[in-house]
Write a structure and sequence with these properties.
The structure holds 2 protein chains of 2 kinds.
Chain A (H helix, E strand, L loop, with lengths): L6 H25 L2 H11 L2 H15 L2 H6 L1 H28 L7 H5 L1 H4 L7 H29 L14 H28 L6 H11 L2 H22 L7 H13 L10 H9 L5 H5 L1 H4 L8 H9 L5 H5 L6 H5 L6 H9 L6 E6 L4 E6 L24 E4 L2 H5 L1 H14 L3 E3 L10 H5 L3 H18 L3 E4 L2 H9 L6 E4 H11 L3 E2 L5 E5 L12 H10 L1 E3 L22 H15 L6 E4 L2 H8 L5 E4 H8 E2 L3 H18 L1
Parallel strand pairs in A: 3-4, 3-5, 5-6, 8-9, 8-10, 10-11
Antiparallel strand pairs in A: 1-2, 7-12
Chain B lengths: L21 H9 L11 H5 L10 H10 L3 H6 L8 H5 L6 H14 L6
The chains are: A alpha/beta, B mainly alpha.
């Protein structure tokens, strides 16, 4: 007879979570759009399948990305995930080989020691016990780190760990109890029968020397089963749902499904795949520069899962994309944040039902926040025809030196160009989009598109990375969109302008909208290297910092912005450069206020280096333009 | 009556009975930096929308503080949220959020809904 009442909690929990996982997967699959369903099917029976399996092994079990970012944290995650997986795998094999029958019920593998206390006497058996003990020790070492992390995040190289709700704490406690209770239960049973290997055997013999081992073991087997059962039942309500969900996410992502701009099954899967590891909190400048630590992506995911009010969190973010880059699960954090910002405009919202065990899409009455906004006051625009259009953008109009430098460069290039927003620009629309008002932005986009179409140009050059991003992604244009750094790089390549090499040591600040959000990393640096000596910093390329001025954040106060800017300039001027170079008028303005070192835009540096045959005439022209723009302002 | 070409101008005193300060209070509560404004007009001078039409955040600020909400409600629709006013503000008022919150306020207090 192999039945014991203590297996009931475990069995209930296990069958509950299996049925739950299947149901939830079906709901998610049903919620996908038709094309995404096809993608997933094709991915499941195609090349993506192997890729997904590989990724599941590397990321869900080994946690390679976390290991790369933070070894101690990665080891903690790996030992718990991979260790537990091995324990289940080898436990099942053990029960199959050494048990009385083959193909046992799961509980026989989990409580194998209880049902086969004599196991471990022969040489082969003791070898296998050694393996099982080793895996258990591996998990326990990770658990030890997890406990330390809760007490002092710094010990694991983290600035902050995530805060928990009561239900999270119960689930966490039950998870933490699983392995120690297994250790003690197995040790006591081994101690009573004189079996077990280096861990359970030795601990067991010590305990058995002063305890009635067989009698004491029984409650610990109960505890083991109870903590497993509790953990399984609470799993859907807590962040631990990421364990099964992440597998689903990996298949979906490898099949080519992307977030899009509305909440849907994929964004739901992503939200539930967040394990709250806290890497996004560590990466966030609002955390380490401005001391704001309740708005990071992990908390946003949690607020969405718990159906809490997300507006405060969603809008208080620089949208610099540092967390997207580092998320070990690969969740598209910024797009999900943008979905939350737009939620006032969308009819579909996910609402928790069944006490949080399920989330259903519900049609809500549309709450129009900004209806009636219209920009019909904008004048009819008749642009000159030109080959190259220059769109300065709002922020460039606030920094006339960039505008003037670009005028110099464009004139020197000898190309036929036209300045479309010389008399003041109409906003490109991205700031409205960042505020979650896409429909209004569309109106501005249409207005600007008309100007560009009418001019018949083939290239659009802009000085502002914010404009650059929206021109490329949200406009339907038949022109090549270039940021001015790319344009200048092309000029250098064609050898159409001559430049001097300036005797300057500079550092480069990568603007978020140009670097991480648009993928333009190399062109600006090539241009800088052409005219000055570029020094390396610790925050180059993908690890670049946000200046703090980002339009992505609507809530952030001036004081906090300034604090971030000071922090950034402090890091960029560590090597004491002659000037800090950036490629964004907004970054330039924000950073310039925070440092005594000169901050310039790349085009200003180039304009200074440029060799113009009739230099005298041009300086005069430049002076005139400065006076003009001073008059406008 | 004969038209003499002039008339008695309308009273310009603030009518506290008729004016409604709910919106002003709501904005101050949600964006405390609203209080810092000294009505210098920098925001209006740099405004992208103000370049093309009559739109002055400085004026709206005064009207909202007074509790005169009709003009601000209509004018706020013109803002493009470009954020130049926030950069230019010498007092560090988060003007972009002021407008964001003000739009929310007009939506919230039904009598002034768009």
């Amino acid at each position: 007879m192999h039945f014991e009442p203590f297996i009931i909690p475990f069995n209930l929990g296990l069958y509950f979570i299996l049925i739950y996982a299947v149901t939830r997967s079906i709901i998610w699959f049903r919620d996908l759009s038709r094309s995404d369903k096809l993608r997933l099917q094709r991915g499941f029976f195609g090349k993506a399948f192997g890729q997904s399996l590989k990724e599941i092994f590397l990321e869900s079990l080994i946690h390679r990305k976390i290991l790369k970012t933070n070894f101690r944290l990665g080891y903690m995650h790996m030992s718990l995930a991979f260790g537990w997986f091995l324990l289940i795998l080898f436990g099942t094999i053990e029960a199959d080989i050494f048990g009385e029958t083959h193909l046992n019920a799961p509980y026989k593998a989990i409580f194998f020691k209880y049902f086969n206390p004599d196991h471990g006497k022969t040489f082969f058996e003791s070898g296998y016990s050694f393996l099982m003990d080793f895996i258990l020790a591996f998990i326990l070492s990770g658990l030890f780190l997890a406990v330390i992390k809760r007490l002092s995040p710094k010990a694991l190289g983290m600035r902050k760990t995530t805060r928990l709700k009561t239900i999270d704490k119960i689930a966490l406690t039950s998870l933490w109890l699983i392995f120690p209770s297994r250790l003690i239960a197995e040790s006591l049973t081994s101690g009573a029968y004189g079996t077990g290997s280096f861990l359970t055997g030795s601990l067991g013999s010590v305990l058995a020397s002063f305890l009635p081992a067989r009698a004491v073991a029984y409650p610990f087997w109960w505890l083991y089963s109870l903590s497993l059962g509790t953990f399984f039942v609470l799993l859907p309500l807590t962040r631990y749902l990421h364990i099964p969900t992440e597998l689903f996410l990996i298949f979906m992502r490898n099949s080519g499904i992307r977030t899009g701009d509305k909440a849907g099954a994929y964004s739901e899967v992503q939200v539930h795949s967040c394990s709250s590891c806290g890497i996004c909190i560590d990466q966030c400048q609002l955390n380490f520069s401005a001391g704001i630590n309740h708005i990071q992506s992990a908390y946003l995911m949690k607020a969405i899962r718990n159906n809490d009010e997300t507006a405060e969190i969603a809008y208080n973010c620089l949208l610099c994309g540092r967390c997207d880059q580092k998320c070990p699960v690969g969740i598209e954090l910024s797009p999900i944040r943008m979905i939350q910002r737009r939620s006032g405009e969308s009819e579909n919202n996910y609402i928790n039902t069944w006490k949080g065990y399920f989330r259903n899409r519900q049609n809500l009455p549309l709450q129009k926040l900004t209806s009636g906004i219209s920009y019909d006051f904008l004048p009819e625009n008749n642009p000159q025809s030109a080959d190259i259009l220059y769109f300065a953008g709002c922020m460039t109009h606030l920094t006339p030196s960039i505008k003037n430098a670009m005028t110099t460069i464009l004139n020197a290039s000898g190309l036929k160009w036209s300045f479309i927003d010389e008399k003041g620009s109409v906003c490109c629309g991205r700031p409205l989009m960042l505020a979650g008002q896409d429909k209004e932005a569309r109106e501005l986009i249409n207005y600007n598109s008309q100007i560009i179409w009418k001019s018949g140009a083939h290239t659009l050059v802009t000085s502002c990375p914010i404009c650059y991003k929206v021109f490329r992604e949200s406009y339907y244009l038949d022109v090549e969109v270039l940021h001015h750094t790319q344009f200048i790089r092309n000029l250098i390549e064609d050898d159409s302008v001559k430049m001097n090499f300036l005797n300057k040591r500079v550092t480069y600040h990568t603007p978020c909208e140009l670097g991480r959000n648009s993928g333009v990393y190399d062109e600006p640096k090539e241009v800088i290297r052409h005219v000055a000596r570029l020094e390396k910093t610790d925050f180059d390329d993908k690890n670049s910092l946000c200046c703090g001025g980002s339009l992505g954040n609507i809530k952030l106060s001036y004081a906090k912005r300034h604090q971030i800017a000071c922090d950034v300039t402090g890091k960029l001027t560590k090597c004491d450069p002659d000037c800090v170079v950036t490629a964004c008028p907004l970054c330039r303005k924000t950073l310039a206020q925070a440092t005594s070192t000169q901050v310039v835009d790349i085009c200003e540096l180039v304009a200074e280096a440029i060799v113009i045959p009739s230099a005298k005439k041009n300086t005069k022209y430049n002076d005139l333009r400065v006076r003009e723009s001073a008059g406008i302002l | 009556m004969d038209n003499f070409g002039f008339a008695i101008s309308k009273g310009r005193q603030i009518d506290w009975e008729a004016n409604n300060r709910k919106v002003a209070d709501f904005i101050r509560e949600n964006e405390p930096s609203f209080k810092l404004c000294i009505a210098c007009g920098g925001c209006a001078a740099t405004c992208t929308a103000g370049n093309f039409t009559e739109f002055s955040l400085r004026e709206l600020n005064i009207l909202i503080h007074r509790g005169e909400n009709t003009k601000p409600r209509d004018d706020l629709k013109k803002c493009m949220m470009c954020g130049k006013c926030t950069l230019i503000c010498p007092r560090g008022v988060n003007t972009r959020n002021v407008i964001f919150v003000a739009r929310k306020a007009y939506q919230k207090f039904g009598d002034y809904a768009f």
